What we know:
By secondary structure, the chain is an alpha/beta fold. It contains 3 helices and 8 strands. The chain has helices at 21-32, 91-100, 140-146, and strands at 15-18, 35-41, 47-54, 57-63, 84-87, 104-111, 116-122, 128-134. The strands form 2 sheets. It has a 4-stranded mixed sheet, covered by helices on one side. It has a 4-stranded mixed sheet with strand order 5-8-7-6, with helices on one face. It is elongated, with a radius of gyration of 18 Å.
Amino acid sequence: MSEKTGSAAAEVVPALFYDDPNAALDWLEQAFGFETCLRVTGDDGVIQHAEMEYGNGRIMLGGTGWSDFPTSPKSLDGKNTQCIHVQVKDVMAHYERAKAVGATIAAEPEDQFYGDRIYRVFDPEGHFWTFGQTMRVLSNADMEKASPGLKVEGKG
């Protein structure tokens, strides 16, 4: 058991709020390749809670109407307090898939100083996502050399 996590099986699962969770679930499947593994709907057919998987990762999503605190970025003029990052096997193919269904691309795929190629994208309600692929594994010293003057410490 890890003292930092309190459990050997600790897992972080982001939960996103959507004004239209049904449309979001369908879009995340089409654009990003997530697969729905759980869907809980009300009598009206609206998703109350859903879980989606991508590789070994998972997200949860639901609507905004069940309490007064959840909201969608589209109701905040596109402001976000977080970004969901997903590592993929083929970032260029993933980018082309998202682009083909009309995803709003915030930044084209580009190699980063730390060895990954990433692109940035918004979903239809304004949640900010990045998708990356490790192109080369670098030591901290090599990342520092390639960076714009940053100090790199710890294990990556």
